[in-house]
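Lecture 7, part B: from sequences to assemblies.

Below are the input chains for today's worked example.
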Amino acid sequence: MKKSLRMSGLLVALILAAAGCSRDEADSGGHQHHEHMQMAASEAPGGQSVYQLQSLWNSQRGETVRLQSLTGKPVVLAMVYTHCDHACPRIIGDMRLIRQALDAHASDVHFVLVSIDPERDTVERLQAFGEETGLSRQGWTLLRGDEVDVRELAAVFGVQYRRTSATDFAHSNVINVLDRGGEVIHQQQGLGSRPDATVRALKSVLGE
Amino acid sequence: MLAVTAGSYVPLYGDKTRPVGVDAFYMDEYPVTNEEYLAFVNDHPRWRRSKVAPLFADEGYLAHWQADLVAGEQAPEKAPVTNVSWFAAKAYCEAGGKRLPTLDEWEYAARASEDNRDAASRPGFNRLILDWYGKPTRLPLPEVGYSFRNAWGLWDMHGLVWEWVMDFNAVVMTGESRKDAGGLDPQLFCAAGALGTVDPADYAAFMRYAMRGSVQARYSVQNMGFRCARDIEGAAP
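Predicted structure of the full complex, as structure tokens:
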């Protein structure tokens, strides 16, 4: 119950940050969410921050958000597509391992998937995928955006991808870790890597 | 801008039995010049050398310019602007209601020689391109309108500068991190290894793919510029 409340607070924050609403209007989700909004609203992203990107994204819950709305918590983010049979389920599996290793701190970290296949990964598709996989229940955020914005985000992370057929993409397998301000502080490469270094990076942000 | 009509081509990575279709589009006749880029940074302070965010450009950004708002001797007005990151090139095009060309659009348009829209398999044409790739860059760069005007009317698609494309990061590599720009796809290495037997057309394209695969979006390269493109209204998306 606590977890789901916290998530709904985040969603309110996401929606309102995107809409540019004032903090007062957002202040219905309790103290923690209040803090989150404050950070999102008051801190301009630094020169290395991914949150300088102004692109708009649709989540599986139907909100329109800027990445900046993730400000305040560290982020674990990968670029995948939901129709992917091979690498992507493994990337998501690796992210689940990271989440497990965080134990009680899992809810202090945003877990985010961004689609490289916005054509087929509609909001409806992301919603269904989030439910089937149980990711939505755990508070993960699944995003889709315009093709150019996906390209730009990939460029920021040094992620390469290209469509190889009507149904498939070749893509880098990288899990990115962002600090509270959106700066990339760690990249976990490849599939099935041990999550230790990534978890350490996250814990250092969390002050462990 | 000039119109490039729809067609198809087989990309370097492609399957020869399945050419990739390219819709009609507009493309700039010349690479963007220092003079034009100066006007852009005048209007958009966040893209000035002293202001640009490190996420979007490395320390080499406009390094050959004399100052924030002075191109100077090393960057003649009519010469193509270089030392610009992909982010900067993209922002420039968008500010003018345009966009960067896609990799397919660029490669498709670049297949034209002076008199033939598809000269890519002509050995003489590719010899010319490869000769250019083999020569060191002449600095300061000459003015645009330097090498040749191709059958679409586009100047300097080869022979002056490398050019950014929208999906430059569509070359999938093995060491895919922004910290590790090395490690090209083994498929590409094979093409390089088989140089003696490979169609020279493929080798010229290989050089371009290798170049794209070796850069990151924030890099500033002294012989890499760009030109913009635009959809043609009514053309299929």
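Note for the exam: Strands of chain A lie at 56-59, 64-66, 75-80, 110-115, 141-144, 161-163, 169-171, 174-178, 184-189. Keep this in mind when comparing with the next example.
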